[in-house]
Fold this sequence. Notes:
Order of helices and strands: HEEEHEH
Distance between the termini: 53 Å
Number of helices: 3
Low-confidence stretches: 116-121
Number of strands: 4
Radius of gyration: 16 Å
Mean pLDDT: 87
Amino acid sequence: MLSSRNRMRRSTDFSHTVRSGARSGRRNLVLYATSRQADLPSAFGFIVSKAIGNAVTRNLVKRRLREIAAQILEEYPRGLSVVVRALPAAGAADFNALAKDFRKAFSTVVSKARPAAPRVEQKGSAE
């Protein structure tokens, strides 16, 4: 389960991440991610619209996505803001299909969102 410090709640946080973040889409979901200050805990936000299905289906999808995010949070505990938008196909997907799409999309957006380490030029290197 995600703790409250790892949940995105303000609409400005959602907007910033979706508008300026790296994006990766899969069959069941779309992920957006931006880097945060390294000392801040990673935060996840979820968008699950009525296009997914009825309330029971939407809540099931949200619970599954939160569980997958909690697993990923162990690997990336700090420095990321992630928004997960569930697509209509997510309502019919099982946990394994959601997890597979989530992990693939996450690895793509993390590589785009993480700033590259600054290159240090070697003194006296021959060119």
